[in-house]
Design goal:
Number of helices: 1
Number of domains: 1
Largest sheet: none
Helix content: over 70%
GO biological process, one term: response to toxic substance
Organism: Psychrobacter aquaticus CMS 56
Keywords: Lipoprotein
Distance between the termini: 68 Å
Protein name: Entericidin A lipoprotein
Shape: rod-shaped
């Protein structure tokens, strides 16, 4: 019984971690897109 509980908790933490890192990657990507857009606007004004 203990093995089943430990396996379930481990799977839960692994899956939650994957979703967290996926969200973090999307946030970083969004920030990079914003910086790129701003840099292009500045370059167009020059």
């Amino acid at each position: 019984m203990k093995k089943v509980i430990i396996a379930s908790l481990t799977a839960m933490f692994v899956l939650t971690g994957c979703n967290t890192f996926k969200g973090l990657g999307q946030d970083v990507s969004g920030a990079g897109d914003a910086v790129t857009g701003t840099a292009q606007e500045v370059q167009n004004k020059i």
